[in-house]
Amino acid sequence: MLLSGDEHRGCIATALLTEMDGTPITTVHSIHTAAMYAPYPFANGIDEDIVEQETFEFDYKAKRYHCIVDATRPAPGDGATFLHVRQDGADWKLDCEYAGTVQTLTL
């Protein structure tokens, strides 16, 4: 999991890395926190700069891999970002809350 705030906008990106036959290797979550106060629009990320879904392949150590990236912007605007980690049976969950909107990730 990665946590950043460089966009000044809330965003959650999930990357699923698989072998070419579809066998899952790992999932990576990147959470971009919203700005507490970002009054200058020219310094903030905009929706047009974000690709909501992207699929690509790459080679690493003479082997080819497949990666699917999904990104969502849970809520526009400024405000606090709250992260809550909890256990749900055998799974661990991460609730990302932006301006009252919650998105849950399975870790």
Detailed description of the structure:
This protein is mostly beta strands and 107 residues long. The chain is built from no helices and 8 strands.
Helicity level: under 10%
Mean pLDDT: 87
| Count of distinct strands | 8
Shape: flat
Q: What's the gyration radius in Å?
A: 16 Å
Helix count, DSSP H or I runs of 4 or more residues: 0
Q: pLDDT under 50 segments (min length 5)? A: none
How much strand content do the residues show? over 45%
Q: What is the makeup of the main sheet?
A: 5 strands, mixed
Terminal Cα span: 9 Å
Based on helices, strands and strand pairing, what is the structural class?
A: mainly beta
Order of helices and strands: EEEEEEEE
Q: Largest sheet, order of strands side by side?
A: 1-3-2-5-4
Key structural traits:
107 residues, mainly beta, 3-stranded antiparallel sheet, 0% helix
Q: What is this structure, in a nutshell?
A:
The protein is an all-beta fold and 107 residues long. The protein has no helices and eight strands. A five-stranded mixed sheet has the order 1-3-2-5-4, with no helix packed on it. The protein has a three-stranded antiparallel sheet with strand order 6-7-8, with no helix packed on it.
